Amino acid sequence: MTRAVDIVVIGSGVAGLSAALGLAATRDVLVISAGDGSTPWAQGGVAAAYGGDDPLDHAHDTDVAGAGFCDPRNVRALVEEGPQRLAELIAHGARFDRNADGSLSRTLEGGHGRPRVVHAGGDATGAEVHRALRSAVQLAGVETLHGRTVGLVKSDAGRVVGVLVETGGEVTQIDARAVVLATGGIGNAYLASTNPSSVRGDGIALALRAGASLVDMEFVQFHPTALFTGDTSGQLPLVTEAVRGEGAVLRDAEGRRIMAGRHPRADLAPRDVVARAIDATMRRDGSSHVWLDATGIAAEVLRERFPTVLASCARIGVDLVSEQIPVAPAEHFLCGGVRTDRDGATDVPGLYAVGEVAATGVHGANRLASNSLLEGLVFGRRVATTLTLDLPVAIAGRSRELLLDEDREPERIRAILTKYAGIRRDGAGLNAAVDELDALGNGPLATVARSVVVAAAARRDSRGCHWRSDYPGVDERWNEHLVVRLDEDGRPAVRQLLPSGTC
Ligand code: SIN
């Protein structure tokens, strides 16, 4: 069965819905959804320079968190267009928390020099952003098809001209003049992540198979504080950084402050710094978690601001108000991804990417807290504007189906990536990971895992969230971005270096 639309958007998180909403008035757009992704789980908020705040200060904090490895022009687009996108979201009905005088309530998170993170429902910001966008997209008449995209269709002239979607065991071809990947991150390629299980990097595998390039794949961010539930696999509950923004501190088993003296911003250092400090503490003490102490914060503040965290804690029998809670880092966000320009175009005609699956360089080597919902809003709109002004013309001709392979032994792939490409990496482990993955085929999880490990093995220095114990410092000779493409055997390999700032 075949059908045709102007534009297919793969993914129904903040980036995909923003793109669909921006296109709805002028284009026949279809959203394909395999699950709502990470957006509804985002807690902290949306960072945006409002009121007396200066977007350039936000840009500065973004670049410092990104270890100076961000693309400055794209960061500027992010911070300057962000407040307007947020205002539009509010006009679409998103209800953010407000102060008594009606102004937006703003909180602090790691890496921010001032409170600029707006939030909703206390710590349920992603759910509210998602609700508002979904209802706006529905009102605009956009159709959503629930299914998994298992392949792309490419014309002989090299354009992406459609998708193959599996619904109820049947594969349907949908022809399109442009395809927008908005499939989110790679959480489920690791054993444990803050992402839901539908987030497994399919967009990365689809893009590679179509001939697109990836960049910055070694920069996988670990959130410092997932709730330690005793589970070592699956989706772990997040404990938003905003709890530390309100004054909570990290402690080791002896009750000593972990972050004191380690960074001028202590518990509010950028999250790569905090995650590494926790990892080092856990290794030193042979423990599976550390403690987050929010007992110094007034009970009414905790109840109003963090109902989601309180409920997660209650489920494992701990009380955020009166006791320390166990936390440990978990995979959270892919800073790299499919290489795009500022308007979402990949290097394959007809194929676009936005949100976490895309790499525009705005996150550099480590994403600043609460810049991810913002990225989805800003770059989702940018791709919509591009495709409104300039939709490729459909040209009849022969085409090829590029179907993803089946994954072999997914649990083994997850275990390999978790063991060798976590917070702390080294060359021997990464090379072992490449060898072990070679035996596991070219399915999407293996492709994603290999993309991360080949980039991490190639980068012989440490910066942002890529930390090599055998190359522990920044080495200026590695001031380049690593580009990954498929080799002759259909396996991801590092193919090119790009100067810093030209991601
Ligand atoms: C958090 O609330 O700590 C997570 C927000 C983010 O990933 O930026």
TrEMBL record:
Its cofactor is FAD. Keywords: FAD, Flavoprotein, Oxidoreductase, Pyridine nucleotide biosynthesis. Its main location: cytoplasm. It comes from the Bacteria. It catalyses: L-aspartate + O2 = iminosuccinate + H2O2. It is found in: Cytoplasm. Its EC number is 1.4.3.16. Residues 6-373 form the FAD-dependent oxidoreductase 2 FAD-binding domain. Pathway: Cofactor biosynthesis; NAD(+) biosynthesis; iminoaspartate from L-aspartate (oxidase route): step 1/1. GO terms for cellular component: cytoplasm. Residues 412-489 form the Fumarate reductase/succinate dehydrogenase flavoprotein-like C-terminal domain. GO terms for molecular function: L-aspartate oxidase activity; steroid dehydrogenase activity, acting on the CH-CH group of donors. One of its GO terms (biological process) is 'de novo' NAD+ biosynthetic process from L-aspartate. NCBIfam families: nadB (TIGR00551). Catalyzes the oxidation of L-aspartate to iminoaspartate, the first step in the de novo biosynthesis of NAD(+). PANTHER family: L-ASPARTATE OXIDASE (PTHR42716), L-ASPARTATE OXIDASE, CHLOROPLASTIC (PTHR42716:SF2). Belongs to the FAD-dependent oxidoreductase 2 family. NadB subfamily. This is L-aspartate oxidase. It comes from Kribbella sp. HUAS MG21.
